[in-house]
Give the backbone structure.
Amino acid sequence: MRKCKMAVIGFGQRGYGYVQMIMAHPAAELTAVCESSPDRAESFARELGLKNVPLFRSVDELIAKGDFEAVVITLPDYLHCESAIACCNAGKHIMLEKPMAPTAEECRRIIRAIVRNDCKVQIGFVLRHHPMFRRVIRIARSGELGQILNITSSEHIGVMHGASYMRRWHRRIANSGGFVLAKCSHDIDIISTVADAPAVRVASFGSLDFFTPDKLKHPYCSQCPDEACRFRFKGEMVRMTEREKNAPSQTERPFDLCVYNDDKDVVDHQVAIIDFANGIKADFTLNLFAQVPKRTICVAGTEAILYADTADEFITVHNSVTGKTRKIDCKAENTSGHGGSDGTFLNDFIDCVLNDRPFGVDFRAGLSSTVIGNAIEEARLTDKVVEIPPDAYCW
């Protein structure tokens, strides 16, 4: 059986996870890893036993010397555009982490490279493969709910996960396009997929009201006297080498920054309202302080209302015509991340490459999510309702 020769660009937490899954996949062969930090590349390669897998320092070097047909890009968002275009120009198929890019224009640049080089690109909206959201989309499109009028969605992020966005590169809008786009583009994509129409206008309110600099006791966790601080960094949400853990200076420990730093411009809570071309109205709420992390979605139609909760792992459909209620079990199908979605998403990517079939989550979904995310951020910053013209979805 032919195996898909794969490379991974970016050896952070997501890249590390994909390397593990590719190594264990019966239809894939890991043939290269690209990481700009030699310490991270060599340390993680030793941990995973990558004895015969070449390590490259740059995307250019990988393309020039690597032997691969498909690549997973897990770099920070602001590096997606140039790395994806380089891989497209080299004729490689790409699994590109969400969001596609921080700006719609960067997405368009990537799309033009995709079309020009006739390569396949799957955007990392893994929740499309989540057993709950996959069923939600199917029910919404089946007609069971009648005419859909409203969608209410929320993401409740775990305390330390949410705090990590205050100290990592995500803390700057210029790097990520804003908190909602960086973290919740999954949710934007699910809402848009259920609505099955382009968004035409958005409104949003959000601000930084808790992680404020007036609470700062010391710039770095490792030197802070408050050892009882609930947000004290202990390695959550990142993968570090031993050298990074024990580095003598903060510049070599990039995740040690206090969450109350003044070097950030993202929000710590936000709500958004989205109006779709077919009349469906949606709202989304972001919260960073959940004891039990979860996503919820409620889809209200004229004949039934659906409610789903990832923490409970089931869907409830209340039918207003028959008066009946049914529950649907949505347990994870495997132990990979995002409720088993990461594993099935990778399976689909490999199968599409090997069998030359189109991806289910292509560049159109990536552009749409970023267009909406950009509009949400603009609405928040300007305190205005932002209109999205039809040509925003063109490239």
About this structure: The chain is about 35% helix and 25% strand. The chain has three domains: 4-126, 127-211+265-393, 213-252. The two ends are 38 Å apart (CA to CA).
